[in-house]
Structure of Carbohydrate-binding protein:
Amino acid sequence: MGKQGKRFLKLLTCLGMISMVIGVTPAFAATPGSVIFQSGFESGSTLSQLDAQDDDITGTDTSYSTKNNWVTDLEGNAQIGTFKIQYEGGAATDRYASIITDPAYSGNKVLHYWLKNAAIQDNGFMKGRIQTSIYDEPGNPQQSLNEMYYKVRLKLHPDMQKLESFSNAIPWLTLAEFWNDPTWTGSSYPFRITFGLNKDANAGSNQPLYFSVSSENMDNNTRVEVWRSDAKSFTVTYNQWITLEFYYKKGDATTGRFYVAATPSGGSRQILFDVKNWTYNTNNPSPVGLANFNPMKLYTGEEYIDHIRNNGGIMQLYWDNFELWNGWPQAVYQAESMTLGTTSGETLTNSSDVNCSGGVCQIFDSNGVGDYINYYANVPHDGKYDIKVGVKKMNTRGKFQMSIDGANIGTIQDLYAASAQYTELSIANNVQLAAGDRRFKFYVTGTSGTGYQLGIDYIKIIPKD
C-alpha cells in the first residue's frame, strides 16, 4: 500500500457507540490545529551531511501533496526553528541515520537509525545518540509552540529484543524528548519530558521492555522528577510498525497536558499516557512554550548498546510517516469523498461550485419529510468533539435533524435562504465519540419554503479534550 493509502483520515465503515455530554471545556482541553509539515521520507526527501556531527534532510516529499517541503514548510514556519539530525560524537562507523528502502516492503522508504558504538564521553560515562532536532537556534529563531501534536510510525529492529536478556534495569533509552527553557540556553528554569523504553530493576533476564514517560525540573543541573507514568500493560513488539501520537500543551498542574497513543499495525489504538500536569518548570514565573524537541530519537548508555552488539546485533530503529501539527488535528470530511451509507432513495449529485470547500457540494434531492442520507466518517480517537457542518443554503432547501449512530444531536437546522449562502452550522458541542467510523445521518424534517433539498459541503469534528 502506498503512502497516500496510509494517510491520517481513512474512510471505512463500521458501527459504534455514542453519547452526548454537555459541560464546561476543561483547561487542559486540546485546541484544534493545522498541519505544519508531513513526510514519509519518500522520493524528493534527501538526507545529506552538514558537518561531522550533523545531517540534514531537504527537498519536497512527493508522497504528500501539501506541507511537504523540509525547508519552506518545516523550517520556514514561524513556530519552528532549525531542523537537523544530530549525533554529538563518533563517526559513521559508530552511528548513522539514512533514508533506505523498507526491508519489509520495497515500495516504501523509511528513516533508519543504526547505533553500533557509544562514542560520546560524558564525565567518564559513554553514551550514543541519533536524534532529529527541532531547535530554536540563532539565525532561525522560532515562536514557541504552546500546543503541538505529531504522529510518526516506529519499528523496533528485531535486534532490539536482545535487550530483554539484559540482566539489570534499563532506566533510559530515549525515543523522544521535549524541552521547555532547555539547559543549553542558559535558562534558570529548564524542564524536559522524556519518552522511551525502560526495564525494571531486579526484573532479571528475558523480561519485556515497556514505554515510559517522565518529566524533570533541571534547575542548576539538578534533576527533580515532577511526574512519571509507565505503560506496562502495552506489549512492546519488534519488527512491527507502531503508530505513535504525541500531544503537548504548555501548562501548570491544572492546565498542562502530555498525551501519547499507540496503534500497532493491525491492532487497536491504545492511549498509553494522558498526563494532566506541569509541562514546564514548576518554579518558572514566565515560561515559554515548546521551543526545542526531538521527535525521533535514539539516545542511551554504552552498556545497553554493547549488550546488543556483544550478542550479535546492532541497536536499530526505523521511522516513517511523520506529521507535525500546531494543535490537535481537526477532521474535515468532504461530503463528496465520504463513504456513503443508506439513503431513502433520492438522487445525490456532486455540484461543482467554487464557493464550496474543495470546489464541490453534494445536493441531496429530497422531496419530502422523512427522506434521509447517511455518511460514514472515521473519528481518530475517543473523546469529546464539537460537530459542525458546511452547507449551501438556497430557496429550494429544507430542514434536517442530524444524528450520529442513531442518537440525535443538536436542534433542527434550516437551510432555506432567499439566495445562495455558504455557511458553517454549529450542530452540537462536547459530543462524546468513540474512535472508529461513525454514522452521520441527515433526516429531512420539513421546509420553510417549497423545497426539501439539502446542500452538504462537509462535516467537521473539532476535538475538545
Notes: Residues 180 and 390 are 38 Å apart (CA to CA). The helical segments are 70-75, 302-310. The longest strand covers residues 421-433.
